[in-house]
Amino acid sequence: MERIHLPTADGPRAYSLFAPSSPHPLPLVLFLHGAGGSAEWADEETGWSRLAASERFALALPEGLPPDPAKPPKFLTNPLRWNDGSPGPTGLPSTADDVAFLARVIEDVSQRIRVDPARIYTTGFSNGAGMTFRLAGGLAGKLAAIAPVAGLFWCRETMPARPVPTLYMIGDADPLVPWRGGRVRSPWLHRLVSKPSVPESLETWAAANGCVAVPLVGSSSRGVRVEVYPGPVECRVQVIAGLGHHWPGGLGRLTPKLAGPPSNALDATAEIWRFFKNSSNDKSEGLGSSNSELTESI
After folding, report:
1. What is the pLDDT of residues 252-282, one digit of tens each?
2. Which CATH number does the domain housing residue 31 bear?
3. DSSP classification of residue 74
4. DSSP state of 163
5. Which residues face 185 on adjacent strands?
6. Considering its fold, how many domains does the chain have in total?
7. Which residues pair with 35 in a beta bridge?
8. Which of 44, 65, 151, 273 has the fewest CB atoms within 10 Å, counting from its CB?
């Protein structure tokens, strides 16, 4: 894994890059950590670089900025975060131009290795999921698909210029991003913050994505409920029973007192990579089969 530093209008920024040798252009996955996380911590938690090595795709792990760039990042007092349009972990919205930074990361990776421009994907966790939504709104023309996990669509001023295939995952026992929304005690400054409901967030994204804002709901299989918003591209939701605020199938290192229980009912990293690969094929065929399966199970 190579650590790369880039100058930006917001000051020096960094990302980590894993790229297997290949005579062919490589798919590129951007993974965005959650608030207070880091590229290294997120990769260890999710196993993305191990999958990139076995599946032969490039992986970029950019890092957000702390509220006080003059001080070292710390999880509770100076957390690395993304400007996803939310109030942020400390209640003060970020002013960083993270869309421009992530566009610069894609450009920089493409100058270092051969990247297939038709197979560039973004996924992220929590605050990184919110940034994934925002990036798709700002760079829809560059992204083949996105996969936000356990986050919300905050930035509704910037809508995607074209529909972007979307896979969304969340646990139904998530205390920090509760399915029904409501008041949540933040680990930062122990503040009570209001969160919108996940369905409200997803319905807004589905409509912006050119999809029907009312999902088809399928029966649960192995503790995973599937919903699909019909439309020109696949917009699929997977709700994992008993999962708190953790990466599905990850190491579950966030304390249960803060994040609730982990779960291995679903390997999100492998599932998202399958979705990304399928989204680069015939999208209309894939969407049709998904809706058909759901309709038969209702």
Report:
1. 999 999 999 999 999 999 999 999 999 976 4
2. 3.40.50.1820
3. B
4. -
5. 192
6. 1
7. none
8. 44
The beta strands (E) that lie in the chain are given as 2-8, 11-18, 26-32, 58-62, 115-125, 145-149, 166-171, 182-185, 192-195, 216-217, 224-228, 235-240
- Tell me the two tokens of residue 265: 């009912």
Token digits of residue 116: 């297939």
* Cα dihedral sign, 163-59-48-244: negative
The answer to whether the pTM exceeds 0.85 is: yes
Is the CA virtual torsion 200, 205, 210, 216 positive or negative?
Answer: negative
Residue type, 294: L
Q: What are 205-231's pLDDT values in tens digits? A: 999 999 999 999 887 788 999 999 999
User: From CA 49, how far away is CA 255, in angstroms rounded?
Assistant: 24
Task: Count Cβ atoms within 10 A of the Cβ of residue 199 and give its class: 0-12 exposed, 13-18 middle, 19 or more buried.
Answer: middle
Instruction: Report the share of the chain in percent with pLDDT over 90.
Output: 80
SS3 282: coil
The answer to whether residue 294 scores a pLDDT higher than 50 is no
Domain housing 177: 2-297
Burial 273-291 (b: 16+ CB within 10 A, else e): bebbbbbbeebeebbeebb
**121, 29 Cβ separation under 8 angstroms:** yes
Going by their DSSP bridges, the two strands 216-217 and 224-228 should be labelled as: antiparallel
* Pair 174, 244: CB distance under 8 Å: yes
